[in-house]
Design brief:
The chain is an alpha+beta fold. It has 4 helices and 4 strands; from the N terminus they run E-H-H-E-E-H-H-E. It is globular. The two termini are 30 Å apart.
Length: 102
């Protein structure tokens, strides 16, 4: 399943978060199954969001939609940042282990 990682800057976190929540139905319609929002400790005007989508084509359509561009304006986004598409790697070892049998 594709994941989309977005790094973005904004003017005000509360304003950004309200618009992000307003977009929940649009994300669901685009096949977004979950989101995780991370705020940069050193730069509180930046977030990193990890989205889990069921379908890459639907995700790309949502990410390029005029509705999303308008929402970024409403949210006070100052830099749309980067968008990276990621694929999960099966069999990855948990943190702190070598991945080899004991």
């Amino acid at each position: 399943m594709p994941h989309v990682l977005v790094q973005q800057r904004f003017e005000d976190f509360d304003r950004w978060q309200r618009v992000f929540e307003r977009l929940r139905p649009a994300r669901a319609e685009a096949g977004c199954r979950s989101t995780a929002v991370f705020r940069n400790r050193r730069d509180p005007q930046e977030v990193v969001v990890l989205f889990d989508f069921a379908d890459l084509a639907l995700a790309q359509r949502h990410m390029g939609s005029p509705q999303l561009r308008d929402a970024w304006r409403d949210a006070g986004v100052t830099d749309p940042g980067t968008v990276t598409v990621l694929d999960a790697v099966s069999g990855a070892a948990p943190t702190g282990t070598s991945g080899s049998p004991a």
